Give the backbone structure.
Amino acid sequence: MMILQPIGRTFLQFVGTLGRLALFSGAALSHIVRPPFYARVILRQMIEIGYLSMPIVGLTALFTGMVLALQSYTGFARFSAEGAIANVVVLSMTRELGPVLGGLMVAGRIGAAMAAEIGTMRVTEQIDALETLSTNPLKYLVAPRLLAGLTMLPLLVFVADIIGVFGGYLVSIYKLGFNPANYLQNTWDFLQLQDVISGLVKASVFGFIVTLMGCYHGYHSAGGAQGVGSATTNAVVSASILILCFDYILTEMFFAR
Amino acid sequence: MSAAAPKIRLKGVRKSFDRKIVLDGVDLEVGVGESVVIIGGSGVGKSVLLKCILGLLPPDAGSIQIDGQEVIGLRSRDREQVNRKFGMLFQGAALFDSLPVWENVAFGLLAQKRATRAAAKEIAIAKLSQVGLGPEVADLSPAELSGGMKKRVGLARAIASEPEIIFFDEPTTGLDPIMSDVINDLIAKITRDVGATGLSITHDMASARKISDRIAMIHAGKIVWSGPTSTIDKSGNDYVDQFIHGRAEGPIKMAVRL
């Protein structure tokens, strides 16, 4: 019996968390479409997530594209299949690495900041203060962040895709000595609209995951500075794991026939 | 709603966390325009009681009426309507640190779109001068303020939407005696000026005497004594006597292991 107890308790806690998370996100999502809307807050979050994350996501994409070209060259050269490098780079970037690496970088940058900010607001009674000022904290704090995550991540990843392909192009042309026209032709020929779209849908889901985890853990943090610290950690870790998990699920949905 | 309906009426309010009973049937009435202070030691449920009235915590049982309207179990939109009658000064002021001082003060007006930004800023500056702060404070960020200034800004925010009821959570905690007195004077003056009903919780007796018409003492989740402030020294209640004289010996046992 002593062995079963902790298993059961852990399972019940897990189910409880899942339920709270579902209620939390359902309530917050409903506030996205119900007035009043806080345009200034939404705009500020969009700038924070979309514009200010551009440098790190762009750098990540640039180096990923460059490494992809270099690595696949060493591999493909053994089969004299160097011509496939362009396809490998563009397909890997758009379908997989753009959204996943972009999502992970944003989880570190945005998820952590959100959990810390909202967590501090919780422990210093600022969230209570919102309610006494007749402002729903889910509507004022959470809904704008979720909306910004849902809409800004696809834009961010779209730019990252382009930068990544450009990184592969740079290495292929200037280091590996490919013909620029051929390389671009190869890139373009094998790319389908679905590859890009699926990547952007993934990005939107990841944006939702990152902001939801940041808000949820921050909102429910308790116990002063230590509570805010663990909320921040939990937000980043859970967002990262969920991103990788949902990456598989979404890939399965898009491409498994 | 009769004319004599109290502003706030609590009946048998109970609240417990897990197995720990915090409020064990609290009855309290606060009349229109009256200023009531609830005193009691640390951890006897003062803050929980305030949070129940504000709707931040749901009580387990009992009834809370504001202007004769039952507020327990209200839907969130109706709750927001009730909360518009409220102003609240938090213990740590709870200013929004992402916003400048004037946006903090005018937050309620801006959030409910009751004023344009320019008009809201003017109102904010007027409210700041009411609490003795100059217009140059308006554009500072809350992080640049001292503890006493934060409390004043918090007070300005609490009165900005001209509430009918103002709540004060430990208004003098963390302030030096002189600043405490300044804040007490402000609270007494402002609640009188706007004609608001006041409900405060504190364990600072100097503050309680200064800002209240009536004092209620809470202990072990119940109101054990309540009466006009002038009679507190002759209450004849052992709990009150022990508390106002700050004695370690008496009916109130602190959960301290020596």
The longest helix of chain B spans residues 177-194. The first strand of chain B starts at residue 8 and ends at 17.
